[in-house]
């Protein structure tokens, strides 16, 4: 009663509430470009990509071993058996073989990835944060550009991951020997497959991420700011898992092309995707096309959560820096 009396006491008929449209959510308004400069997107993306891949590298190593069929040490499709075999033959350090190549490739590639994505999204979405088509197309543009940077080091990384039977002593030894023995084209043998894999992967990933993020923020708009990191992590995990599951067969083809001739793995007469698929089915059946699907999902779900939350945290940092700089300029 006291609360009702207080409310009645301070009501003024001259002040009427302004009606809002039913979908009005002031807490989740999204700016077109977040007010960041191009180089700030590049730094945020570079940090996010490096953190993501370094944190999840052991899982990626298990996946590579499972997908590299042939005379390689691991033939089982089981995650547990693959992990036990790596630990038994090489110890814990075997899970981190090739991490140097990953470090050299992930930072620059993700700098290109996120900067191209943000610029494309700004141009294509025309300020509409709900434009899923713009997000998907922007993701495809981003992956085509970033794969051109990352594919050579990814090839080096996967060859080194195959373990102690590999003939390479390290990153630079692998680069020099591949150049001398196979030529520059070997570094891009899987580029077409990688783009064909990552284009749908990225389209599904970004569209799912933006839609999930928006949905989570609309469920609880009053706490969206407080739970921003959780929202990005959850949306990223959902997007990464779905995109990984859809594109596993092409990832197997990519691994086969990048590891051909290494550790007893098959060497293909052609880099044609159809030819590689036929070889995999002939040798390992249709299950060969889904080798490594579990570690791939186990990699991409937390990796995407780490990547997006780190990326958004870096963006928030730069937004604060820019706001502070603008305020000092005005005063």
Multimeric state? single chain
- Proportion of residues in β-strands: under 5%
Order of helices and strands: HHHHHHHHHHHH
Helix content: 55-70%
Count of β-strands: 0
Overall geometry: globular
Distance between the termini: 49 Å
Mean pLDDT score, rounded? Answer: 79
Structural class: mainly alpha
Describe this structure in words.
By secondary structure, the protein is mainly α. The chain is built from twelve helices and no strands. Helix 3 (57-67) packs antiparallel against helix 12. The protein is globular, with a radius of gyration of 24 Å.
Short account of what is shown:
Helix content is 69%, strand content 0%. It has 331 residues and is mainly alpha-helical. It is globular, with a radius of gyration of 24 Å.
Structural key phrases:
331 residues; globular; mainly alpha; 0% strand
List the helices and strands and how they pair.
Elements lengths: L1 H9 L27 H18 L1 H11 L11 H12 L8 H27 L6 H30 L9 H11 L9 H29 L8 H19 L1 H11 L14 H12 L8 H38 L1
Helix pairs in contact: 2-5, 2-12, 3-4, 3-12, 5-6, 6-8, 8-9, 8-10, 9-12, 10-11
């Amino acid at each position: 009663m006291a609360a009702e009396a207080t409310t009645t006491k301070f009501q003024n008929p001259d002040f009427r509430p302004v009606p809002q449209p039913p979908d009005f959510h002031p807490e989740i308004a999204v700016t077109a470009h977040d007010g960041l400069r191009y180089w700030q997107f590049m730094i945020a993306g570079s940090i996010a990509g490096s953190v993501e891949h370094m944190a999840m590298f052991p899982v990626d190593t298990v996946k590579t071993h499972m997908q590299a069929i042939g005379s390689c040490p691991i033939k089982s499709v089981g995650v547990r058996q693959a992990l036990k075999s790596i630990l038994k033959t090489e110890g814990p350090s075997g899970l981190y073989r090739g991490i140097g190549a990953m470090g050299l490739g992930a930072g620059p590639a993700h700098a290109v990835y996120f900067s191209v994505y943000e610029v494309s999204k700004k141009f294509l979405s025309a300020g509409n944060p709900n434009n899923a088509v713009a997000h998907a197309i922007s993701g495809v543009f981003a992956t085509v550009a970033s794969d051109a940077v990352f594919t050579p080091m990814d090839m080096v990384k996967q060859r080194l991951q195959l373990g102690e039977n590999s003939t390479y002593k390290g990153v630079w030894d692998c680069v020099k020997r591949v150049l001398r023995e196979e030529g520059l084209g070997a570094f891009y043998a899987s580029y077409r497959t990688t783009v064909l894999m990552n284009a749908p992967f990225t389209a599904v990933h970004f569209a799912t991420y933006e839609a999930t993020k928006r949905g989570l923020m609309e469920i609880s708009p009053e706490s969206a700011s407080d739970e921003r990191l959780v929202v990005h992590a959850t949306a990223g995990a959902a997007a990464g898992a779905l995109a990984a599951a859809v594109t596993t067969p092409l990832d197997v083809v990519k691994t086969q092309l990048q590891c051909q001739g290494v550790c007893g793995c098959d060497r293909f007469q052609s880099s044609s995707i159809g030819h590689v698929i036929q070889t995999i089915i002939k040798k390992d059946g249709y299950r060969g096309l889904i080798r490594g699907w579990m570690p791939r999902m186990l990699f991409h779900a937390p990796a995407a959560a780490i990547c997006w939350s780190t990326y958004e945290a870096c963006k928030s940092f730069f937004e604060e820096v820019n706001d502070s700089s603008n305020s000092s300029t005005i005063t």
